Fold this sequence. Notes:
Strand content: 25-35%
Radius of gyration: 22 Å
Distance between the termini: 35 Å
Oligomer: single chain
Low-confidence stretches: none
CATH topology of the largest domain: Pseudouridine synthase
Number of strands: 13
Largest sheet: 9 strands, mixed
Mean pLDDT: 92
Number of helices: 6
Number of domains: 2
CATH architecture of the largest domain: 2-Layer Sandwich
Amino acid sequence: MRLDKFLSQQLGISRSLVARELRAGNITVDDEIVKSGSFQVTTDKQVAYDGNVLTQVTGPRYFMLHKPQGYICSTDDPTHPTILFFIEEPLSQKLHSAGRLDIDTTGLVLLTDDGQWSHRISSPKHHCEKTYRVQLSEDITDDVTAKFEQGVMLNSEKYPTKAAKLEIISAREVLLTISEGRYHQVKRMFAAVGNHVCGLHRERVGEIWLDEELAPGEYRPLTEAEINSITVPR
């Protein structure tokens, strides 16, 4: 990678500002001042800006985050804090969420800089299952399980939802597994059967379950098995 591109990504500044820093002699590679933006940076080189070593990121990265309420699944937002607030990694702004959660929804969020991997989660054609723990304002009625298995019509939609699995935990708490990602789908499904979601928590994406040891706001890298459970076709 060219040095000016590397610095632009690392420092979050434009190429013109990078060129200024290079001319000023503020960039070193292996402790030698380099002023050419075309210099090729390899993984064995140590690049520093004003004496501070810049960490090189090699290969795609995969994390799970226990998302708390009040944060949005975006890299930048002018009015709300984003989930990147919790991620202490080099070039964290290059990560994106593989399937978003609403600002008031908690639970499992997967972050990566691997676009093909996240596409297998978010693309409708892959039918990646997600399981949610749902708190309801009214008691669940006996016929909802069958209705969700058959599919329900959502307001302003042309087609019913795909078959969904409902597991009743108590009168007002259920687990719902869906294989779609329509806008506010879980909330709209319960609205379609006359109920209201007052709490929503995602527990699973594909074969990846939220780590019970992660407190809200904590994250960890995915294991190889977790990564491959999405990557490897079944």
